[in-house]
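Long-time lurker. I teach an intro course on protein structure, and each term I like to show students one example going from raw sequence to a predicted 3D structure in token notation. This year I'd like something fresh instead of my usual example. Would anyone be willing to generate the tokens for the chain below so I can use it in lecture? Attribution to the forum is fine with me.
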Amino acid sequence: MPSTFDVAVAEHPCRAVVAVSGELDLDTCPYVIEATGALSLHGQTLIMDLSAVTFMDSVGLNLLLRLRQRAEEEGV
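-- Reply from a regular --
Happy to contribute to a lecture. Here you go:
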């Protein structure tokens, strides 16, 4: 994982918060996919905290769209 990039997941009873910092791009999206892949969203709200993201390319945007689709499919 690049040293200027971090992804942290905090699960709460009604929500999961994924905080990302640094650049969200082709090199770092796999880390977010890995971190969110283990989450069970059934009945939880998925919150993406992107306040510390300094750059996002189209791969990062596509990741957000896929996470949204997954949340909808899981009934969130």
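Some talking points for your students: The chain has a mean pLDDT of 90. Strands lie at 6-11, 15-24, 45-56.
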